[in-house]
Amino acid sequence: MAKTHPGIDERLRAFIEAQRMFFVASAPLEADGHVNVSPKGLDTFRILGPHRVAYLDLTGSGNETAAHLDQNGRITIMFCAFEGPPDIVRLYGRGRAVLPGDTGWDDLRAAFPDLPGARQVIEVEVTRVQSSCGFAVPRYTPAGDRDQLTRWAVSKGDDGVADYRATHNAASIDGLPARLP
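RESULT FIELD:
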């Protein structure tokens, strides 16, 4: 069943890099705050070392993860095998949102493709790596990536995306502030 690993080794790296989707979970400190889980896709995840990962965060309907990370740093990233042998890998850690102009932005951003609507890079120092069986995860065959988000960002243009962020991404649903590029 569950197994803890000392870090992201080559087998785990191969598994993670083969997944087309991952899930990000974060939460505020307040007991009545909302736990957030977000699915992510496209070519937005990178393994930077056995205890360091990052993903390119695109402009979306909210900015919960960044607000939670600014408050408490806690984050979990989960990968599920929807094809092939069953497996689940969770990366627990402490994260930070890195925005244009922040220390480390140029190096982190260079690791990802130029996707429209890129908002920030979420960098995570991984403190626990755990795998589990995934026996109950159903099998799915991907039909391909969706392009609606990137088409939306292109149609809005840089100024339109910035206006959207100012209106919809400046605070979490619980009212925590979220820095914006």
